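re: that complex we talked abt at group meeting.

here r the seqs, copy pasted straight from the sheet so there may be weird spacing, ignore it
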Amino acid sequence: MHQIQTPIGDEVIRSLKVGDSVTLSGTMVTGRDAAHKWMIETFIKQTRPAQGDDLQVHEELKKLLNGSVIYHCGPVVTGKSLQEYRFIAAGPTTSIREEPYQADVMKHFNIKGVIGKGGMGAKTLKGCEETPGVYFHAIGGAASFLAQTVTKVTGVFKLEFGMPEAMWVIEVKDFPVVVTMDSHGGSQHAVVDEASKKVLNDLLSR
Amino acid sequence: MRDLTNEIVELIRRTSSSLPKDVEDRLRTSIEKEAPGSAARGALETILKNIELSRANSTPICQDTGTPIFYVHYPVGWSTIQLRRQIRAAMEEATKKSYMRPNAVDAIYDKNSGNNLGGDDFPYIHFEEVEGEELTIELMLKGGGCENVGRQYSLPENTLGAGRDLAGVRKVVLDAVQKAQGQGCAPGILGVAIGGDRGSSYIKSKEVLFSEMGTRNDDPKLAALEEQLTKESNELGIGPMGFGGKTTVLDTKITGLSRLPASYFVSVSYMCWAYRRRKMTVKGEEVMYD
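got the structure back, here u go
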């Protein structure tokens, strides 16, 4: 079991291999569909002009995400203000929807880890090699359990996207994950996909 | 007519936070099939801890509290207008209590309503008038991750060598399971509808998921296919979360419906392991939960 604290250094990332169990502690930021689309359009491809507090949030995110982790999660949060916010259900959402965006977002913010479920594709795997970074797989649906590792909510951006889509800044302690995509081109998802495809072809021929 | 709003809030709390026993039992049995120390086994262990914790604390099993799907069977004399109003009020209240995540997003303007009410179709409510004195309200919460990996095939499907018969149905269902990988939060439960039009076929593929684990179709041919599909899906080796392993599918439920001569649809609804479905029964003054 690797115990890792954010921000994460490149040498730690390079030491991680597919199959490693890890517990993460420190600050991380949630971000899913709306957030990724917004980051790409506003700051990376710049096809949409920055509006409202966009530029200010961008500056904050650059500091928070540098060397840190983005979590594909749309939590259930109680409370009405920063002092009251508490995560009560916070498992991972399916990551593959961020496949068009993830590698560029990782490089732009120097993100070292992406937490989600279901794995990601070739473009993100290449992003993991180049940044370098890894994909951490959390247990899908284990929302009450994972919410217990969230010790504090320290901020929230883009609440206008709605509770699930907002970017929540959280502190976690011993958040359990498994490395399923590493910075050396290894992907458990590609391995299982290929092996299951072979079995399928065999079953279809019967 | 009696106001059932509070009782429906309780139904929502139970559905969101307390996994039915038959599903939990299947998950417990599956653990023994996975190798000690494997990621697959670790995933199932975490899943079981989460089930207990959610039940103890009345917190959502999964943060994606899903599409709320209500099936209401009501005796003669009840008003569906009032029942709909009560269900919607209960949904709003359950969202305030954090049993539900605000999940209704206007698809055109990307705006989350914040209270799980969106137009006439969210939550989804199906009403049916029945004989007798009992009113039953069943609720299923189906998360988006598993909904996204559902598939519909129009047979013949030549790329898979799937013709218009049960052998062809077998092939497309196995294809759907392989394509889903772990993305629908495996181990999953398959709801399969054969026939119908595109719409009715998908609806039936979900409706069949209201039945208990291990319920077999009365038709022996379909019952056999249900067993075969569960067994062969598990041979694919996708495993819990797609980590690789022996437990990919916990159960398969198939239903058949009439089709047009020209059409042969097979719809596969994939249900995640967080298979949330509960029922309340109202009889006279008494309200019972399953």
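couple things i noticed - The CA atoms of residues 127 and 157 of chain A lie 25 Å apart. The longest helix of chain A spans residues 188-204.
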